[in-house]
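User: For a benchmark we're assembling, each entry needs the component sequences followed by a predicted structure for the full assembly. Here are entry 17's components. Please fill in the structure.
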Amino acid sequence: MKRTIVLAVALAVTAVAVVAAPVVKLVYWSMWNQTEPQAQVLAAAIEDFEAKNPGVKVEVNWNGREIRKTLQPALDNKQVIDMWDEDTERVVKTWGAYALKLDSYVTKRYPTTSGKAYKDSVMASLLDLSRSYAKDKGLYAIPYQPFVFAFMYNKEHFAKAGIASTPKTWDDLLADMAKLKASGFTPMTVDDAYMDCLPGYYLAREKGYQWVQQLVKDKTNAMWSDPAVLQMAKAYENLVKLGYVSNTAASNKWPAGQQDVAAGTVTMYLNGTWLVNEIMGSTGPDFKWGTFSFPTVPGGKDDATAANYGAQAFEISKNCKNPELAFALIVHLTTGKWDAELAKKSYGVPVGGTTDWPVQLTEAKSIFKGLKTCYPWAAGIEADTDKAPVITENFAKLIGGTITADQFVEAMKK
Amino acid sequence: MRKKQYTLMKVVFLGPAVLSYLTVFLYPTLRTTVMSFFKVDSITDAVSTWSFAGIENYRSLFASTLFLRSMENIARIWLYGGLLVFAFALLFAVILTSGVRFKSFFRAVIYLPNVISAVALGTMWMQYVYSSRYGLLKEFFQSFGLRGLAQIQWTTPEHIFGALLVAYCFGMVGYFMLIFMAGIEKIPADFYEVATIEGAGKAAQFRLITLPLMKGVVRTSIVLWTISTVVFFIWSMVFSPLSPEPGTVTPMVYMYQMVFGANMVVIGRNVGAGASVGVLLSLMVLVIFLISNRLIRDDGFEY
Amino acid sequence: MRNSGVPRSSRAMRGNLIPGYVAVGAWCLFTFVVIGWIILASFSTTRDIFAGNLFRSGFHPENYMKAIVNNNVGIYFLNSLIYTFAACFGIVLVSAPAAYVLARFPSKTNALIQNAFVAALGIPAIMIIMPLFVVITALDWTNSRSLLIVLYIAINVPFTVFFLTTFYRNIPTSFEEAAAIDGCGPMKTFWVIILPLAQQGVITVTIFNFITVWNEYFMALIFANKTALRPVAVGLYSMIQSMRYTGDWAGMFAAVVIVFLPTFVLYLFLSEKIISGVTNGAIKG
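Assistant: Structure for entry 17:
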């Protein structure tokens, strides 16, 4: 009898506590703009989270990419911000000092991880990447919306041109481009925004990305005399001569080149897997997308196991009053149902291990599986902010056919 | 009693304005100047985290090819753009004050681009006028059979500076045309009448009457043009949206990158270097202001 | 000399005006074409814009619906209205009296103040805004409408003072003398008599300030980073950004038109005032 009374009182107290529980607020600053599909899915996911966790309110600030400018000043202002997201490298390197270390959180199990620890139910390579950016190799950022940088291409064009499989070497690529041109397509184009990725990847395939970084940081410009540079320049000069590059490549102001791909006149474009989402408005979901990694080059050392890959990532503030709750939200967003929704609606790569990939990115899956080395952006060719615009400018002239490979090398040596 | 009233009024009337100047302009200018001698990571970092760098920031500026190119770019914008804009503005001002009909209409239309946001105008120039596929210029030249001109791709590295200059100047002509028109309209018509009677042709009238009496206007215009050139930013960002390029970079773009970091790569920022760019820009405006005051003396001729 | 109404010089010149008409006419035609394109593009689709055939798939007014509905345009407009009206009022309140003192009572101090104001016009905004942010941060005053309004006022005072100083010079001093004889204090004289006489200048500079504050982007971005406080310019920029990332360029143009519409309408109705304002301020300066 006594036990029943105690139990009843305990239940009553709990009930009162739950009903009278103060509202717990989480403030999330997002890198997405409210109209982007990612934002719409996240908003729905957050509503779902609030429904499953009564008493929790999540306040979202849809900053858009301006978060790069506004977050740190706000944090310095001691504004209450519990979590934020942006590119993994950026959140760790630029804002890592404000973030909570999350190693102990990822070893736990959560409702959506089907009995496994969190770290075992998401892409391990991404967690490793996140650690690699931190000075103490701790886990500060939880990745989502991964991408890989590779050639995105129109599968229908390949089919019409009679190309059976994706090119693995530069010679394969040349052969395929010849077939495409014969079938009336323009094999390749590029935009000013991604201009330097073309030379960057070629050089990195030749000598690795660390060499590329040294090359651009070399103030004496002596390294540009290396035959590898000339080989790269000649390779592209050759493409231009054979007519495999769109004749507007040098003048394409983003997104003009991408829109050519969407319009079906150009076949290949070196970009991130986000491209599918980015031009979905012009392509529609029936566009047959394919992906292949930048091919190997004659005499080169790197292959398809190396590429720039990354993700956006969440961080939790050191001063967050409810870190477990914040982490629970992150798990909610990155595994299970909402990971699938995010991948589906944004035509992106899912981070949860069991989630289906959108059909447009099927070929990207094998690329992801094989990745061993992570290139920095544009394979390191932007390591010197002074040199980068000069490289882009001269390479644009090369790809536009107005200068020769030798002239390119000369211009870079100045 | 009267004097006290006046003193009180002066204090009360001037007070708020001077106060706002001191807090909003003086303090930031001083802080930025001091900051330019330090290495600072983030703009809101506390002073204790700054590390003294002496004139290192300035030295690195002049060692940076991108910065030097940006200075070269605004020098060219200032000179060539200035000549272009002033020439057209003066031309239109003279035409419209010569008794053409529909003066108000023309004046309003020519001024209109100045009112529209640079982002909209810039995008229109880039993706429509200059487009290599279906652009206005291409269609125009093709319809006249000027194949060679039609083939020119205006947004390649070789041409982009010129493209930017033309687009920018197009929007500025209207503004300066208005200023010049006012200057001309202030000149009494009798001067011209007398000159015509004396047998002076239109060109001579322009040279001997119009220009000299517009000295003050021209001087103001030069200062205004210099200010807008020095802070040239938005148009560059529109023509080179993701990363700066040598053809369009200006000191403000460079400063922005120093303060907020590069767009695609995560490289260390140095707000101190950004501050030093700001200091240099302000000095330039001040110098031009003083020089133009010296060179173009407003005679104060009253009419 | 007989005056036939039209100055002889202009009658004599009218003969060779054809080339003048051609030059001006061509320029205006070009202006119509390019601005017209912006408006037409806002009714098109991204795909069509880049194919160069704006209406291949028909007319798409839904771009505007999307821009308005999805982007909190209502809130942005409301904020912009609040900031702009409050700021314009405040700017005049602070600047008009100051300019009066500077114009009417020359002294070494006043000359120094005037020069300081002019020098301030040349300082790049970023140099001002960022250090200010540190101070505001310390005072814990961010994300408040009142802060933005105060800042907009303070930033535009030098230009307004500079502009209005020249207007006061045109008003004869007899007004103040008469008022003084009647026993009216100097401050009251200003508000009741002088200011109304300077109306033209005040209206004109207010129009300029309106356009400036309406289009202001950077300060609002830094100091008002909550959606509920954002004005149209920041909203526009984020709309443009988001439309880029979703590849909705037609929507972006719709957003652009929505934003430039008020300035355009204001301009149409007040173009005469703006123009005579620019000219009056510049000649004396």
